[in-house]
Amino acid sequence: MQIGTIISSLITSAGPGGIVVLSVIALAATVYYNLTRWILKGGEEKSDFDRFN
Amino acid sequence: MPNWSMIIDLDKCVACQGCSIACRMENNTPVVSPSESALGRSMLWNDVFPLRSEEEGAIASGQAKFLTRPCMHCEDPPCIKVCPVEATYLDDEGIVRQNYQRCIGCRLCTVACPYGVRYFNWYEPQWSPEFARHITPDKVVGKGSLEGPAVRPKGVVEKCTFCIHRLHKARARSEAEERDFRPADYVPACVQTCTGKARFFGDLDNPNSTVSQLAQSRRAFRLLDEAGTHPKVIYLHEG
Amino acid sequence: MRRKPSFHPHNDHEAIVMAPLATVTRRDYMLWAFLLGIMSLGLIAFVRQFILGLGVTGMNRPIYWGVYITNFVFFIGLAHSGTFISAILRIAGQEWRKPLTRAAEAITLFSLPFGVASIIVDMGRPDRMLNIIRYGRFQSPLLWDFTAVSLYLFSSVVFFYLSLLPDIALCRDRLTNKPPWQRRMYQILALGWQGRPQQYHRLEKVLDGMAIFMSMLVVTVHTVVSWVFGMTIQPGWHSALIGPFFLIGAIFSGTAAVVIVLAILRRVYNLAEALPINLFNSLRKLLIVFTLGWLYMMVAEFLTIFYGNIPEEMEVFWQKFTGDFSLIFWAMTIFVFVIPLYLMVFHGKDNISVMVTSSVLVNIGMWLERYVVIIPTETRPRLLYELVQGAYTPTLTEWTITLSLFAGLILLYSVFSRFFPIVPLWETAESFEPDPSAEPDRSTRIFGAWSNK
Q1: What is the share, in percent, of chain A residues with pLDDT greater than 90?
Q2: Could you say which residues from 53 to 92 on chain B have a Cβ atom under 8 Å away from some Cβ of chain A?
Q3: Which subunits sit against A, judged by 3+ Cβ pairs under 8 A?
Q4: Which pTM does this prediction carry?
Q5: DSSP alpha helices (H): ranges in C309-390?
Q6: Mind spelling out the 3-state secondary structure of chain C?
Q7: For the residues B19-47, what does the mean pLDDT come to?
Q8: Which residues of chain C does B106 touch, with a Cβ-Cβ cutoff of 8 Å?
Q9: What's the CA gap between C142 and C134, in Å, rounded?
Q10: d(CA C403, CA C344)
């Protein structure tokens, strides 16, 4: 019953909604940024390790 | 906390529209031009209108039934659920409030209300010189909130507030006079004005109040009862 | 420091696909000027509306939502085209989608902003937009809308950009005779792409993953858009079917838009070899399925309402079938079903003009459909006693702004197509074998084992 009230007030009160929107976008931005970096790093030469192997 | 409710006895209502006029003057509701009105943009927090009748000429012959309709101040309002910014909310005294300062004008509440009690400011409100002289200074102001008869800007939604400013004034007066607040000190303008003494107002949760007793009447009904909104404006049909 | 040369897979159609990037013609400039002109008219109309108030539209009580919200739903629906073609077909392993994928996604990318613009135009107080962030209530369907559409827009940009990346690098490397600002643009946007096999490999994996995510997003977005209506208790809107109804409608109108755009690109840029006719035949089959699917939705919805005979529902029903909206409703039915089905089934095979005609009719019909979902319900509010039964005539302001949104979409698309290849060259490449005449690149290794996906 208590957890229901907490969730209910989180959903119905002003403010949390905005936080959700911002968090979702921020999370997406972080994920996409890192994915892009990961893609571009594919097969990149590591400076000393590869050359002397 | 009291749970404010209104009883309207349709047997006594003569559809004089005194309630609508009193409401307009009390709450600084602007009048619109005839062309705007024809378009459907009249603002009537309390509206008096004939019920649709199958017979022709029902209005002219005096046979038509009329309804006077303020905001229902539902106990489970569909309008507050859909507001994205809490510009409209249910307070702890059962009044559905409207904050002009926060409203973004998305009009989701206006389409969600099944009773059609909500109105939108399509333009900046304008008054003819006569009306301009009678703009009342009453308003309900808080941090980030502007409610009640306060002159509204364009682009926001407004509706009947059960004359919330009168409630605040009554409370302030009782504090100043160092006595308890009496629910009878507070009546909305429409209830005070009603020619036929057809309107009653009070605390629905108090078993001794007039509204509470009248609500038990055999003649009592609520509009769109089946919609689950639990409106607190209770009508008594003609007996 | 001299950059190592990057690798681009060999594509037989490279010359044809890159040809439109060679010059911006006089006709382009005239088109862009014309479109900008329309957009400025729209801007003027909006500014005037912002100053005076929404009263300059035809909206009233009880028709609080009109053409602007219709546009919103329509443009978000159009956006589903790209995601459907590039994401859903990708997951389904349909290789034929490859030449279309960028053209379709570009529709998504360029129509979403105008969907968002439609909402802003409709707000009574757009200056208070940030209130949604500061005071957002997650119980409101508008918040769900805001979240879903923002995420969709953002993800579409990223998905589009990543799919474009190898071809930006191609432009960087091949288009050496362009003005410095353009070369700099490719340089920066290419993010140093080298075309290493591991980069391609990782790119494909990310696109596969994003395709799954985007497909889920497509379902969510248009369902959530429909719930702005569906979560009210108004007759005609409060239907459990409204989510799938809008979703199928969106994929339907989006796919039809892809057909139109492809036909135009094919003609204007001479891309017949890169966009062969069998693509249109495949799209034709999909469109026929979607038309029938949409017919199913309409029948399910209206038969249920009609059979139930609930009074307030029937008020809205008759408004559409015989009342004030019957002309629009039946026009919609003819444009969306009767003519397109007949044309596509019997005359559509190997016939691009028939497919384009059908698709144009479908899209006009779907715009009308959005209108017919939104306005009639508002004209017959639930409280049957209401004297104000409502009528709505959109004003010049609304039409001007609507037109400018379409102009904007066409403008963005047209400009894009002159600066970037509209057919993804790296995805449609014949082989990933290195060009023997290219300089050997020490960092690449296992080319021979690379297989074209």
Answers
A1: 70
A2: 84-86
A3: B, C
A4: 0.92
A5: 311-321, 326-333, 339-347, 352-379
A6: CCCCCCCCCECCCHHHHHHHHCCCCHHHHHHHHHHHHHHHHHHHHHHHHHHHCHHHCCCCCCCCCCHHHHHHHHHHHHHHHHHHHHHHHHHCCCHHHHHHHHHHHHHHHHHHHHHHHHHHHHCCCHHHCCHHHHCCCCCCHHHHHHHHHHHHHHHHHHHHHHHHHHHHHHHHHHCCCCCHHHHHHHHHHCCCCCCCHHHHHHHHHHHHHHHHHHHHHHHHHHHHHHHHHHCCCCCCCCCCCHHHHHHHHHHHHHHHHHHHHHHHHHHHCCCCCCCCHHHHHHHHHHHHHHHHHHHHHHHHHHHHHHHHCCHHHHHHHHHHHCCCCHHHHHHHHHHHHHHHHHHHHHHCCCCHHHHHHHHHHHHHHHHHHHHHHHHHHHHCCCCCCCCCCCCCCCCHHHHHHHHHHHHHHHHHHHHHHHHCCCCCCCCCCCECCCCCCCCCCCCCCCHHHCCCC
A7: 93
A8: 122-124, 142
A9: 14
A10: 28
pLDDT of A50 above 70: no
**pLDDT-flagged residues of chain C (< 70):** 1-5, 384-389, 432-453
Q: What is the pLDDT of residue C333?
A: 95
Range of the domain at A33: 17-43
ipTM of the complex as predicted: 0.92
Q: From the CA of A14, how many Å to the nearest CA of chain B? A: 6
Between these two residues, A49 and B49, which has the higher pLDDT value?
A: B49
A52 belongs to a structural domain? no
Tell whether C146 lies on the interface with A, counting CB pairs under 8 A: yes
Substitution target in A11, A12, A19 with the highest count of B β-carbons within 10 Å is A12
Q: Is A8 within a domain?
A: no
Burial class (CB in 10 A: 0-12, 13-18, 19+), C375: buried
Q: How far is A27 from chain C (nearest CA, A)?
A: 10
**How far is Cα C256 from Cα C401, in angstroms, rounded to an integer?**
23
Domain annotation for chain C: domains and CATH numbers: 14-277+395-438+445-449 (1.20.1630)
pLDDT score for C440: 47
C7, C131, C138, best to mutate vs chain A, most A CBs in 10 Å: C138
Closest residue by Cα to residue C336 from C299, C304, C391, C374: C299
pLDDT attached to residue A51: 56
**Percentage of residues of chain A with pLDDT beyond 70:** 85
How far apart (Å, rounded) are the C-alpha atoms in residues C21 and C7? 20
Chain C residues lying within 8 Å of A38, measured CB to CB: 202, 206
Domain total in chain A: 1
Residue C441's pLDDT is 45
Smallest Cα distance from B180 to chain C, Å: 35
Amino acid letter, B148:
G
CA distance B127 to C55: 16
Tokens of C108: 């998504």
The number of distinct structural domains making up chain B is: 1
Q: What's B144's domain CATH number?
A: 3.30.70.20
The reported pLDDT for the residue numbered B239 is: 76
Q: Is residue B92 a contact partner of residue B205, using CB atoms and an 8 Å limit?
A: no
A28 is a domain residue: yes
Residue in B158, B151, B120 with CA at minimum distance from that of residue B136: B151
Average pLDDT over residues B158-179: 95
d(CA A14, CA C134) in angstroms, rounded, equals 8
pLDDT of residue C387: 52
Residue B211 lies in domain: 4-236
pLDDT at C30: 97
Token pair belonging to B175: 């504090």
- Assigned domain for A37 exists: yes
